[in-house]
Every structure is written in C-alpha cells, then in structure tokens.
Specification:
29% helix; 2 strands; 98 residues
C-alpha cells in the first residue's frame, strides 16, 4: 500500500480518478481508508491507495498513466478566491486563432 495526500479542493472521486483512473476506484478508497460514499476529505489528509492498480474497465490504467505524464491532479472543488482577470488582455486576443 502507498499513500496520497489530498490537495485543496479534491474530493474522494478526484482521488479515485487520480489513483485508479475511474470513479469506481472510490470503492477501493472507501475500503482501504474506512470511509463512506459521502465522506469528505480535507486538504493534507493522507489516504491509503493500493500499489497495484486493478484493470477496472479496460481504460483506467491508461487514464492513470496519462494523468501522471501530464502531471494533472483532478480537482473538482477548487475555485480561486480572486481571479486576476485584469491581467488577461482580452482586447488584443485573437479568438479566431483557437
């Protein structure tokens, strides 16, 4: 077993996606950490995760590897208190180039 530290704004489902590559991984987190489906996790909380990631749906292992490669940590509850929209230059931005 390994550990993962919860980041600000992460939910149990975010950690499941990050560590197991799919929402079904929440059941492993609940079992290994004695949590319920409605349990909330907090920033800095340490959760136990399995060293071997099971193949849950034929795609989840690729999702975990892609998130690791891109250094992405799913985070569905983090909203910055103040966004600095003034720093963005929308006046000279070419939206057609997207």
């Amino acid at each position: 077993m390994s550990n993962v530290i919860v980041k600000l704004g992460q939910t149990l489902y975010d950690i499941a996606l990050q560590c197991y590559g799919c929402p079904e991984g929440v059941f492993f987190l609940m079992e290994d950490n004695v949590l319920g489906v409605d349990s909330e996790v907090t920033e800095g909380q340490e959760l136990t995760i399995r060293d071997l990631i099971p193949d849950i749906n034929g795609n989840n292992l690729r999702v975990v590897n892609q998130l690791l490669f891109m250094e992405v940590k799913p985070n569905s509850n983090y909203i910055p208190v103040e966004a600095d929209f003034e720093a963005l230059d929308f006046e000279n931005f070419d939206f057609n180039a997207l």
